[in-house]
Write the structure tokens for this entry.
Amino acid sequence: MRRQQGVCLVVKALNALLGTFVGRQRDRALCSIISGYPRLMVTEYDRKPTRGRGPGRTCKAALCALAWASACVLSGAGPALAAMYQLSSFATPDSVSDPATAGSGSMAVFVGSGDPEGLNGDENREIMIVSDTGLLEQLTVSSGCSNGSAVSGANTVWVFFESDCDHTGANPDGSFEIFRVSPVPSSPVIEQLTSGSDCNSLAPSVDGQGNGVVFESDCDLDSSMSGRNGDASVEVFFHDPVASSTVQLSDDLGSGACTSLHPSIDYWGTVVVFDSDCDLAGSNPDNAVEIFSSDVAGNVVQLTVGPDEFCVSEHPVPSRNASTVAFESDCGHGIENQDESLEIFSVAGAGVITQLSDDDEYCSNSDVAVDGSGQVLVWTRACAPELPAALSQEVLRVTDGGVARVSGGESCYAEQGSISDDGASIVFLSDCDGVDGAAEIFSYAGACRCGAPQSGAVAPQLPSASDALLALQAAVGSTVCPACECDVDSSGAVMASDALAILRTAVGDLSVGLTCP
């Protein structure tokens, strides 16, 4: 799974060996070492096929994945946020993965190999759903196969996932297909949405209404043009379950030498973003890994243009209407990111690129997720500046009011953050509870509770003195607090007067009135 101490030792040794190299010079040296392993990647489970672009293009990304996977990291941001809840309790290492918010953020879907209901005695990887109260249900029951990458729309009518199981009797060859399951208590209904042979469909993303689903596949699935993907290249597809139709959105024009990966669809189901090293719109002749968007009819637009073919922009995610697309990249877009570290960027509809994180070459920012407004983001930050003994990896929550750690702890890790459309709920994976060392699903609920950054209190509950103290610390610059929680007079800045207003409210003076932006 993701934390492999043997890999950690390898990464440490490589870093020590190449300590005199910097920037892309260091990356190329690392690439030369692993050039015999062009598909070096960390996969969720052995049965799932790996998809790589070769050492010349994604070597750095693969090495970063190894570093994250083995927790060879140390991070530092603001204080950990309060209002944290543990949603799963499997107490076995590597029992859960891939959490994603569901519904209005009151639920999370994930992949689990535990046996919470007595239905999974063989500890197979199954799709599960858990509420914010800890009520958990297993949605798939299978054996000797794998289920993964669960996602759901805001209404949680269906949960979509990838699987090589034969859930419906229509997948006897054991290829990976896209399925959906209705989370009906005690009697989930499973439907198979794709059907390929000697090929695989992976990485589903569903719109906010739970209707259209996009995914990557090397199958020939286009409903209106049989043979369009006859070269079995990895392309992005859109499937409409109501119409039972599938549209191929990307096309490498028959070369078979490039791939389109990591699709994500916006809330309304009209815009799909993905990364590709193909020249899909006539603006990528050097076949660099760039960010593209498409409507559901396959009209593709290139959103980024990196400085050369060696840097990578990938894993894009859109806001509610795709007016903002966040992604990770080691490119120097404009004058920023000259050290070529892996950072988080956003691109607006007009093609304006903004760098959202700024770390040195020893840090990596990845796994970005964005709320519907495009103003609240979460991502994983990992750093290893001196190969320290105390290792940690954190999930960050970022707003225009500052950066705060969603997770907290030393010698532990947190990753795979997912945020609800309204930005009020975050779920993530972490082993930072300090009890059994097993990774579990956690939730940070109630983000942006005005006047209650520490207690998470909501009316009619009153904030506490600890909320006022945190606001005061933010006012003097010793910590950070989002404006939507600590700027209680909407002045545009967190000040000592905000802390005083919170304290007066905490002791019962309701005449103050707390109003956050």
